[in-house]
Structure to design on (241 residues):
């Protein structure tokens, strides 16, 4: 069964970009206010969330500046807000894409639904599988002579950025489907340029990982390449050329 079509018009790429910017601009203010209020609200329960996070990863933490604990709780509140507001963010993004790329109501809903599904799958996969394994491996070098003292600020930054980054990279298949369906990049191009995809994935993994070590890059780059191959498979199943 073929996937629902995207109703495209012959619109120059420049006009599509301008149209997208104009559409997304309408929601930036409301998104910013919503995220700000959400961060403020979740700040008051951030100690509970932080305790659960610390218990899950079994880490003892320290702080080295007066403001570090406060900023760590603000980061947690912002992280929770972005995590819970993802459906709204996805709706605003794809609605802005609807006009320049002719997304119909049914197709628009499909992209929003799978964007949220993939995002939450990525964050949960990272939180329950990748993150505990990565931290255990990296701290495995601790010894009697070398003891770890982990800053609460760096710990929170590491965890929140890593989890959100995983959520974003899990969106790759849906964007590949969009690119193929809208004619921006045919399936054959994805299949032909796997070598360049590996290079691009390595660069993205290096940019998104909070620390520059090879272990974190592999923990992110490996799943990202599998998602790339998954995107090609989905394009084949949906018979998108």
């Amino acid at each position: 069964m073929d996937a629902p079509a995207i109703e495209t018009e012959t619109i120059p790429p420049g006009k599509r970009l301008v149209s997208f910017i104009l559409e997304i601009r309408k929601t930036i203010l409301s998104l910013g206010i919503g995220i700000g209020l959400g961060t403020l609200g979740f700040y008051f329960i951030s100690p509970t969330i932080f305790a659960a996070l610390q218990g899950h990863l079994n880490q003892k933490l320290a702080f080295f500046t007066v403001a570090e604990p406060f900023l760590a709780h603000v980061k947690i509140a912002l992280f929770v807000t972005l995590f819970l507001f993802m459906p709204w963010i996805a709706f605003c993004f794809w609605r802005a894409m609807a006009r320049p790329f002719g997304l119909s109501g049914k197709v628009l809903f499909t992209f929003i639904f799978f964007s949220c599904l993939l995002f939450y799958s990525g964050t949960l996969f990272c939180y329950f599988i990748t993150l505990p394994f990565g931290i255990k491996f990296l701290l495995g070098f601790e010894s009697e002579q070398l003891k770890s003292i982990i800053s609460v600020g760096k710990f929170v930054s590491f965890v929140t950025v890593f989890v959100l980054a995983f959520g974003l990279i899990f969106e790759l298949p849906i964007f590949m489907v969009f690119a193929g369906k809208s004619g921006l990049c045919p399936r054959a191009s994805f299949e032909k340029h796997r070598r360049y995809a590996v290079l691009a994935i390595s660069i993205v993994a290096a940019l998104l990982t909070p620390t520059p070590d090879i272990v974190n890059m592999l923990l992110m780059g490996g799943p990202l390449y599998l998602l790339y191959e998954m995107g090609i498979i989905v394009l084949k199943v949906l018979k998108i050329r």
In short: The two ends are 14 Å apart (CA to CA). The beta strands are 61-62, 150-151. The CA atoms of residues 15 and 100 lie 8 Å apart. DSSP finds ten helices and two strands in the chain.
